[in-house]
Batch of 2 targets.
Target 1
Amino acid sequence: MIVAFAGGVGGAKLAFGLYQEVPLGELAVIVNTGDDLEMYGLHISPDLDTVMYSLAGIANHITGWGIEGDTFYALKALARYGEESWFGLGDQDLATHILRTKMLGEGQSLTAVTRSLAARLGVKASLLPMCDQRVATVVETPGGPLPFQDYFVRRGASDRVLGLRFEGVERAKPTPEVERALSTAELIVFAPSNPFLSIQPILAVPGLRGLLSKCPAPKVAVSPVIGGRAVRGPADRLLRDLGHEVSTFGVAKIYAGLVNSFVIDEVDRQEAPRIEALGLRVLVTKTLMNSAEDKKELARRTIRFALGKE
Amino acid sequence: MIVAFAGGVGGAKLAFGLYQEVPLGELAVIVNTGDDLEMYGLHISPDLDTVMYSLAGIANHITGWGIEGDTFYALKALARYGEESWFGLGDQDLATHILRTKMLGEGQSLTAVTRSLAARLGVKASLLPMCDQRVATVVETPGGPLPFQDYFVRRGASDRVLGLRFEGVERAKPTPEVERALSTAELIVFAPSNPFLSIQPILAVPGLRGLLSKCPAPKVAVSPVIGGRAVRGPADRLLRDLGHEVSTFGVAKIYAGLVNSFVIDEVDRQEAPRIEALGLRVLVTKTLMNSAEDKKELARRTIRFALGKE
């Protein structure tokens, strides 16, 4: 069993590669749900959906989120009713939120709901919400605290970040499914997701770090920063705002103590010695994932390297 | 104040005509909610929506229901999840059901929700659900009882009808808004809706017939049957199945005692004497409504005739 930790777009890309490389049924992806939000009474889990659509082969490869070829007629109709429409819910995408909301309303856990939705889309990997309790990432900014999607989508991640809070996390706990995945993992992969916004909420679930440290499997992280910039999203700005070095080394320092090895891009080759000095083995390879082939290749090399096969 | 009783498509057409003819704010439409259903956890009120979209000027004039130019991408995505997709929910239409479900979930009454949605679409008439309690029309057929939309949409109204039940109606009561409308009405118009499926559920609300009989305003019904056939839907088959004469006279007999006057189509001119013999004044005019002009003209003539002005 290979267990990946992932957030949205970057995580979904590597998860897709892992899904192609790992024997069917032997991949579990633990996904951030701190980004979840309720809009129009619907429960939306953006990161779970991004990973699910990606593994189901229906993801929009241009935007990175949402469904290929999706349309936005319902959203326009919501706007006609005077509702806010800054969160890009596609028509096909809405089907997911409608069914999730219905099943949660019937008392099913988010884990059970996600299992059902993913199975119905033909996904043969375990998509595991980080927990079944509601945790809400709150971004502290000079103008005050912002709910995550307000910061990220509505305001375009343009605010300076003073800190992060994960509201409700003190009541969260790892699900039996997450516990089982971590107890049977042969390899743990931290996908190139935002370490603060995507990975930190997962690690903030009480008990999760303990499960990780008990797990004897090798652990590897893939840098979401290439050449001092985030491939996508505000990871570079968060490094700066939160007082870290804005580089792949800065990311590696965050993961030191948690992983044994670290994957960086060829353009950051000169960082390798500093990262090795943190006690990490370093794989230097092409980490930018554009094509399906890129995703598979990065997954293959990451697995082999982390397992000591190259 | 003019008060109309209406179901879906036929009712929406005359309601549109009345809305154009009556001074703004002086039309109330009491609408059947026995057709309401829950799908995918969403509360759908097909007749309320058909009337609302019609008055808002966004109705689909070809189908008679739904929104002009609507698309069905969310429905296809629901089908991809393995959900039933025989009920034609458009993408724009979904916005209505999503918002209605949210507001009902917050504890608002269907009357309050309908007022809000209609106002946001710019509708200046009062759209009044027949009651705020859940009433479900059940159609008794040789194969057993069918929920209304199973009978009507899924099975195309093809079953022989042995009888109708309005489940939950014993707990229903007229809303304060319906009471007020009926106490201030200067004219009551029964739109050319199906008398069994659209009007009977409204009249079955305990207390409603009493309010009607206390109301001194003239009352008029427009025949949904022309030349022995329903303009649309199964009204003619229900007349036959339930032992009535399949004609505009058969409809008039149902309304006798409830209304003072009755509007029939020119092709049914020969029925006028028999209907007059029931004690009803009869207006013979063009009742088929295709264009907006047809709807306004029928509304204008119906009002004038019922008020004794022609």
Target 2
Amino acid sequence: MTLLDSVFWSAGISRDALATRSAFSKTRVNSAVAGMLEQGVLEEVGVQHSTGGRRPETLRLNRRLGVLLGVAMGATGLEVAVLTPDLEVLARHSEPADVRQGPGLVLSRVRALMRELLAQCGATPKQVISIGIGVPGPVDFDSGQLVNPPLMPEWDAFSIRDDLRADYGAPVFVDNDVNLMALGELWRMQRGLQNFLVIKVGTGIGCGIVCHGVVYRGTNGSAGDVGHICVDPSGPRCHCGNLGCVEAMAAGPAIARLATEAAQAGESALLAEMLAARGTLTLQDVAQASRAGDTAANAIVQHAGALLGQMLASVVNFFNPSHVFIGGGIARIGPLFLAAVRQSVYHRSLALSTRHLEIQYAPLGERAGLIGAGVLAMQESLRLRGSVR
Amino acid sequence: MTLLDSVFWSAGISRDALATRSAFSKTRVNSAVAGMLEQGVLEEVGVQHSTGGRRPETLRLNRRLGVLLGVAMGATGLEVAVLTPDLEVLARHSEPADVRQGPGLVLSRVRALMRELLAQCGATPKQVISIGIGVPGPVDFDSGQLVNPPLMPEWDAFSIRDDLRADYGAPVFVDNDVNLMALGELWRMQRGLQNFLVIKVGTGIGCGIVCHGVVYRGTNGSAGDVGHICVDPSGPRCHCGNLGCVEAMAAGPAIARLATEAAQAGESALLAEMLAARGTLTLQDVAQASRAGDTAANAIVQHAGALLGQMLASVVNFFNPSHVFIGGGIARIGPLFLAAVRQSVYHRSLALSTRHLEIQYAPLGERAGLIGAGVLAMQESLRLRGSVR
């Protein structure tokens, strides 16, 4: 890791702390930092509280380097943001979207949003350092192509990278959305955890894996594809063709379907009222009903949590992570869902695997995907830039 | 990785190949190698076929450095070997053993075998460089202690390392048996694969994980504990307390129990004959009957393979490895078992995860554990020795 990488990953650091973290002497760090300040790569800001003596200045990537564009595509929504090199969000927009419309329509909307947001924060296209994009499907990271994405079949073998690269003359990096959530959380913790998982439950279920302090993508970029792990051999048929996949039983659409059935069966006045008002129920409706104490909604939430926990138990036995962070639309349900997941995991996993295991909602919350896209963009730009040690 | 590490991991290498693999120039490599030859750390042997010009000498760790002791403890057997620093087995002994007898009895037998085998190959105790030991349970790698080992409860919190360290004044390294099989296969392939799994099916079921080219042990050293992944929520109760663990349904004891029931139910004359002759059936009896074409044995083998494959499908979806190697007593069954495993994995895993997935028996076969113990001993000794670059 170069000094510049260390500054980026620490989100503000003093020279002394930088020397401690790096393998270099204070003298060497001071001289390298002086050079990078002069080149305009780093800048000094504010003062940091110190244990005594003079207050060391905080170093960060120089905001005059330019801006990053971050895009988080979900199956049903789209988010675009402009971020500083140290990942402060300068402008952000999110809206419903349907990725199944295919690359043409979706990317023209992405382009329009990028232009608007850049204008909104007074940045020019030339200032774009790089672009990071998260997509809800498996990506071949080296080619930037989507590979057999089940939620977005029209995008198979499409390279978002090649399509967008010319727009800003800036490099474009594409990764799976959950990998980016994991990258975002890794950055938030300044790489403080070595082995953890981020589970996203929305339209589908996916898992980002951090192993030995690095995002792990697997041999074909499909690592973390946990949505099709079987939790009930006699369960309903999934769109993948198999029976009882956790995604077919515990993701957003399954939860909405069970809620619709409960509303229609007269099991919940609240859900029936929501269904009558909107014509259809979503995960968010169930979350709202559950938080309001609706018994039928709570039963659905607890069942989904137990199934997710059953899948997670297998994964925890195999991977023995220190933390599992849960994100995506499901997080709006609140503590009841989390309690059901925990109970199920602790019941099924080995004592040793769960001795210090923490299961919680992703601390970055709904920002995880965008922050992750920014981390990807900046990290890979620093890598392309080569080693400024 | 130091030059010395590179020589060790390549199992015989020319200076030119060493320079190619390392980040150093040929001149620097030649000079470092000359120094290590003079110090007696490396030696040159034989000649290597070259593409032309003079034939480069092959470098390897100097056998005069001493010998390694490798121990592979299984639930029902014990193996001890003396190996050269480049992992040639000089002497080896295996015998049935019951780890449940506890550390006292088992380790005194290990000590006796070590003495005998060293004498057998004319090595003195002082020549022992280090000792590598594999055990069938979770190990806290840093302390060398077993942690809650389900197959060997008497060993909980026992440190084999501390117990044996004084015997030879040599460092002792302890790891889980399947981790060592994975380490052995990694060495055999000269680190040629980045992400693969080794599954051991014997008395229990465990998994060694190689991630980013390194053995991954997890947060508490329990990574790969796949034996208690549920494959049938209404299956039989496992010794861990849960229902339908793959270990309770597809490991050696379950296979032997099903075969005994088949013999007693008159479903197989061959199994009944074996049962009458020996009073009990083992995994090896079922393997033998299956290879002889016995229908009942084949059905049991195929059922066990399908269940193992079902567990593996979850793990493959999560981890997306390039290879799964299967070892342990189960390997003696032969192609029928492997075919059942493959069919089950390809049926349940995502197309992308299995596109290039290879499932085969572990190439090192029954030697994997001992070779892995040797790799551990030598690798950790080189690490302790520090960096000779």
